[in-house]
Amino acid sequence: MAHVTTNMPRRATDNSVSAGPASDVRTFIAAVLLTFAAGELMLLGYALLGVFGGIIGVVAAFFGVLWWRTIHDKRAFPRDLPVKSVVILAVVTAVITLLAFLTVA
After folding, report:
1. Does pTM surpass 0.70?
2. Whose CA, among 20, 28, 50, 102, lies 20 to 30 Å from 43?
3. Per-residue confidence of the chain (105 residues) as pLDDT tens digits?
């Protein structure tokens, strides 16, 4: 009796980087918000203290990204980013932007 093996194709999501289209959109939004918030922190620092404040803003942005990584298991963009994290990031970014606008205006 012959032994027949079949190789069934695996789905790409078994060991894929992506957890699906919704996760990809959340990751993209988080990347945009992190970049924008870093720039806003630099702008806010520059508006308040000049060049030294801009440097402090860059340092604050660096530590903000480090903090973001610590709450997501040492990954800046985990495979399945929680919606709660993206919403909190959006609110924090909006507050930083509002503060920057009020300071510059």
Report:
1. yes
2. 28
3. 667 777 766 555 555 677 788 888 999 999 999 999 999 999 999 999 999 999 999 999 999 999 999 998 888 888 888 899 999 999 999 999 999 899 888
